[in-house]
Amino acid sequence: MGCDGGTIPKRDELVRVKQKPEQKDKDSEREFRWLHCALTQQRLEEPIAMCGLGRLYTKQSLIERLLEREKKMPEASAHVKSLKDIKNLKLTPNPAYEVNEDKTEGLLDTRHAPYICKLIGLEMSGKFRFVALWSCGCVMSERALKQIKGKTASTCPLCLVPYCVEDVIVLNGNEEDVELMKVKIEMRAAKRKESKKKDKKSAKSKEEKTETVTEESNVKEPKEKEASIKTEKPSTSSKIKRSIPINPMQDPELKRLKTDFSVAKDPKATDVYKSLFTSHKTEKEQERAHWVTYNPFYN
Predict the structure, then answer these.
(1) Average pLDDT across the chain, whole number
(2) How far is CA 74 from the centre of its chain?
(3) Full-prediction pTM beyond 0.85?
């Protein structure tokens, strides 16, 4: 009936204890989040996008789910309602990464992540905290951003695009990071509303200015036309008065037609021209005979 052959039972064989729940492997869970889409649980494919909470998605699969209105988004991605809620990531590929790399459990330390930090070279495998900027989509390690932040404040160290505090998003962060990212989403939404209000006010002010300018131009045009008409009338009358002399007999051209006209009295003629005629002073005062009757042998 047992225990008769010199066997000694152990405590585990006699007493049954509740088994502890299986614990997840932290390394495998971390690797899964950084290499797989948060929506479809399939391996990430470029282009890769992120949501406001810092989760990674394959953009094509996310667009397909948004187009299928019948299927609802899972709770983890319920905040993604349109393409405005996601941002394309600018990732730096890892030159040491190989697609056909051996991924057995014994080679966990030799695995390489597909992307790295462009500034420091840290691998984006989940061991180090990585950050993405919502303003430009550049991805870098949090350590690099803290080191460079003092030198280039409020500008991206990769593309030099300005950013604010709410634009810094922690990728695949913990629960505290997720709550902080929710607050940053609300801050960005409030900024968008303020910018829209400012744009509307500026557009209205521009329209009012254009209306006032058009009204002033419409008022000035008839006044300018009246002034131009008034200035044109006296100019035409003055031209007519100038062209028609007061007394036509005083015109010098008509005086020449008279029989008693003399070249010596003509004010427009020169002295050289007047000397050709007998009415000139030199012809009247000369002592010798006229050139027609002049004879050098007798005179």
Answers:
(1) 76
(2) 37
(3) no
